[in-house]
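This section describes the prediction task in plain terms. A model, or a person checking by hand, is given the sequence of a single protein chain and must write out its three-dimensional structure as a string of tokens. No templates, partner chains or ligands are provided. The sample shown here is typical of the held-out split.
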Amino acid sequence: MLASLGRRLALAARVLVNGQAPSVIETDIPAITPQEVAEAKDFFPLEKFFIFGHARSGTTLLVRLVRLHPQVYCNYQAHFFTRPPLLQSLVSDPQVRAWLGRRSNRWNRGKDLSPAVLRAVADFILERDARREGKTIVGDKSPSSLLNGEAVRLMHKVYPDASLVYIVRDGRDTVVSHRFQTFIDASQHLSSEDLHIREAFIRNPEPFLRGEQSIFTEKAIRWGAEGWAKNASESDAMARDLYADRYLSLRYDHLLAQPPVEMHRVWAFLGADPNLAGLPQALEAELARNPDADWQRQKAGRLVEPLEKGKQGSWRQLFTSRDREIFKSIAGQTLIDWGFEQNLTW
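The expected answer:
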């Protein structure tokens, strides 16, 4: 028991500090069958979607915007498929699996009930709130930084009929944002070297803002680059393979630059009418708010005062020459693949 607790605490610390966790799924389940999907839809008919993306990539902003539509409801971070213990942990115990697949259990029609059980649980959770709001399309947003492409595979085993939206942000801005989030929310898990950097930034941010002093340890910038590149590459590849035309990717910078155009595309993809009256005005009003920035200023004012929340290209100020070279060597090609750079000369 103590060993298990130790592993869980170590995992929690790694998740908080680095936004990463081992992509290992200890127990797998059968995929839901087309017949089971059809039966589930008889009971839970609302259209489902999921929003994935690396932490600090704009998933929260996308939720705030997507649910402005009167047909669409979306809520935060059920982590059905994106963060341990995962939805499938409900049936992962060997005794539970044996019960659900037992031949004498005449309710299971001679096969494992696990995928039907998981689908029913998730459908109920999603539709309960959506129906209360009078919505007909419902989704969950859960950052997928921990399991990357594996999260897409796990989702497909339960929701092959759902839609998947993946949002990607320039990896350099992503790791900067995640670094400051760690400074604010998880300082108790920082190393002494990390804490020294944090306190130095609070005392005098100018050398950091000029790229003369790094906000990263070498380990942190490497982990950040590796995590972002793996998430962006694996998630997109798996989604294209498994979901085809039920998959939509978009860039955070494009969403900020032309929100009406990008949200028209998202709403149409989800099956909602993107031309309803009032949507442009609702978008404008929502984009004028920045609740995350307000919360961060309230919690850690001195730390975040020198930064413009959500600004694109802040890495250009904050990356040192060492940071640039490390990130380029690990994730340079991924930046090119997504169109954030044309070559490696930045």
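For orientation: The chain has one domain: 28-337.
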